[in-house]
Specification:
Strand order of the largest sheet: 3-2-1-5-4-9-10-11-14-8
Helix content: 40-55%
Largest sheet: 10 strands, mixed
Number of strands: 14
Number of domains: 1
Radius of gyration: 25 Å
């Protein structure tokens, strides 16, 4: 890792001069900006995807469970065990051949779309996890992992080299410093607002939860210590839950598990708050200034999965009809179709094959699971390919917006409502206490091995709502937060409510906080024992058995604590 250090010269004046101080501060800022630009130039972000590890297993079967698409939309597969590079080709034919083999022909296909700041290496590690693959196979599932680069660190570097959604290699030396200066200015100017969001919203809610949390009561009653906003949400939940208990066949299925706030947890929470206060406060303006550009660029990567940037590059000679084409009688539509087919995003190419496959294999069930930012990709899939039938759609800690949900998921459910077996949708959430209480030192990859540690409080969804995005309305807030979906439950048409489940997990002192060490085996019984408390942090969803229906479904009736 390259580090830039500087030492301040000894002051030669006994008196303080504002002009001198301003010049010194400005010089340091310019030096820092120049250093970062140099770092980007020397170690440019790999915009065609993160480097693939060389620890590929001897068998290649795991590649038949994996779809890899780079940040610029190119479908790729690992080259071999001796190379760190990736080849610009796809393995779709191999995947479908494996699906149709005798051993897998009767299995349910389950697509898992990663998110949560994962990159291509994460997808490869998941596909090579023999324990998870075996556990899913024993339940008659054939998993296919969709890997894309959802890392915010590399997204920010790409943001610095991208102008208005267009990556122009010839201009980034000019645009990068200007973009960086703009981000630094935004970080400084928005610092007071960042502090307000953190301390008077996220942290304030955490303190209000400490004395009394949400309840599973189905009657309206005030809860001592609960902030007014949470109290209103709790009342709405009580009404929805009460109606579900009375009419489960025609209502929204909803549940929020108990939250046991033990004295030990309270002490640990206070200790981590104190420990994280200084680094968190110092990093807030920086994360605010850079987080917005990184998040916007990452959402741009979602579109690249379906439309590669080169698809719109009119400067590429292969895109147009040439004079020779006219002489040979090539039709414009033929040239355009050929060009767009070659330039289409990797995931779009796979979805086209999947749609054709399902037409000939209508009996084959498919389940779609998205985690975190993976739900943004899933929503695009539902919007762009609504004819592909899924038996179940599961969103875990969804980082897509309520607006995405209304425009993609609800129309999809309505489209398939009259099917012999309508599609069911599940929205799985952390307990609202955990959303504001999550604390970690987040390791962020800046590209080519450079890494930093950033102190955060609150889940990723909390940070997106407050820092990484600029919601223009409530509908731009995250679907995966319990409070958001309960407050927006009225947007769900009554005819679709029986098809939708909203489940919030709870907490207890003996909850699983890490993957159980079972010697590499996937012990389902351990997870089933803790099914009520479920995931305790945003990233936990991906290592829970998300293919098990008991993780999605709610109890028919739930007693008050």
């Amino acid at each position: 890792m390259i580090r830039f250090t500087s030492r301040s010269p000894k002051r030669e004046r006994d008196t303080f001069e504002p002009a001198h101080a301003c010049r010194t501060t400005l010089s340091r800022c310019m030096l820092l900006a120049f250093a970062l630009i140099c770092l980007i130039s020397v170690f440019p972000p790999n915009l065609e995807g993160a480097a693939v590890s060389n620890d590929v297993a001897g068998e290649d079967d795991w590649t038949r469970h994996l779809i890899l698409v780079t940040s610029l939309g190119q479908a790729v597969v690992p080259a071999d065990s001796q190379k760190l590079s990736i080849e610009p080709k796809n393995n779709f034919d191999d995947i479908f051949a494996s699906i149709e083999s005798d051993a897998n022909r009767s299995k349910t296909l389950i697509f898992f779309i990663q998110g949560g700041l994962d990159d291509l290496d994460s997808a490869i590690a998941r596909a090579k996890d023999a324990g998870t693959i075996a556990a899913m196979a024993s339940d008659n599932f054939y998993p296919i992992f969709i890997g894309w680069d959802a890392n915010l660190g590399t997204s920010y570097l790409e943001h610095l080299k991208t102008s208005r959604g267009i990556y122009e290699p010839g201009n980034y030396l000019f645009t990068t410093p200007l973009t960086l200066i703009a981000d630094l200015g935004e970080a400084v100017s928005n610092a007071p607002l960042s502090f307000f969001h953190q301390f008077f919203e996220t942290d304030a809610k955490r303190l209000k939860f400490a004395s009394s949390s949400y309840t599973n009561d189905t009657v309206f009653r005030p809860i001592s210590g609960l902030n007014p906003e949470a109290q209103v949400v709790n009342n709405e939940y009580a009404e929805l839950r009460s109606y579900y208990n009375a009419h489960p066949e025609r209502s929204l299925k909803i549940e929020l598990a108990n939250f046991c706030y033990s004295p030990e947890r309270a002490i640990a929470g206070s200790a981590t708050y104190i420990v994280s206060f200084v680094p968190k406060t110092a990093m807030l303006p920086i994360l605010q200034g850079g987080g917005l550009g990184a998040w916007q660029r990452m959402r741009g990567r979602v579109i690249n999965l379906f439309h590669r940037p080169y698809e719109f590059d009119l400067l590429d000679k292969g895109y147009h009809l040439t004079e020779a084409d006219f002489r040979e009688g090539v039709l414009p539509d033929d040239a355009y179709d050929k060009s767009t087919a070659e330039r289409a995003g990797g995931l779009a190419l796979f979805m086209a094959q999947l749609q054709a496959y399902q037409l000939d294999h209508k009996q084959r069930q498919i389940i779609l699971v998205g985690h975190s930012a993976g739900t943004i990709v899933a929503s695009e899939m539902l919007l762009r390919y609504p004819d592909i039938k899924y038996a179940d759609i599961v969103y875990m800690a969804a980082a897509c917006s309520l607006n995405d949900f209304e425009k993609s998921v609800l129309p999809y459910l309505k489209r398939h409502k009259s099917d012999a077996t309508p599609t069911l949708f599940y929205d799985l959430c952390l307990h609202p206490q955990h959303e504001v209480d999550e604390w970690r030192l987040q390791e962020v990859t800046l590209g080519n091995g450079a890494e930093e540690m950033l102190a955060e409080r609150g889940s990723l969804l909390e940070w997106i709502d407050n820092f990484y995005s600029t919601p223009e309305s409530f509908m731009d807030r995250m679907l995966g937060k319990w409070e958001n979906i309960v407050q927006a439950s009225h947007i769900i048409p009554y005819e679709l409510r029986p098809l939708i489940t909203v489940k919030g997990f709870g907490a207890s002192p003996d909850a699983l906080k890490a993957f159980p060490n079972t010697g590499g085996a996937y012990n389902i019984d351990t997870f089933y024992k803790h099914r009520d408390t479920g995931p305790q942090a945003h990233g936990d969803f991906s290592w829970w058995p998300y293919w098990k229906t008991w993780m999605w479904e709610v109890e028919p009736s739930l007693k008050s604590p």
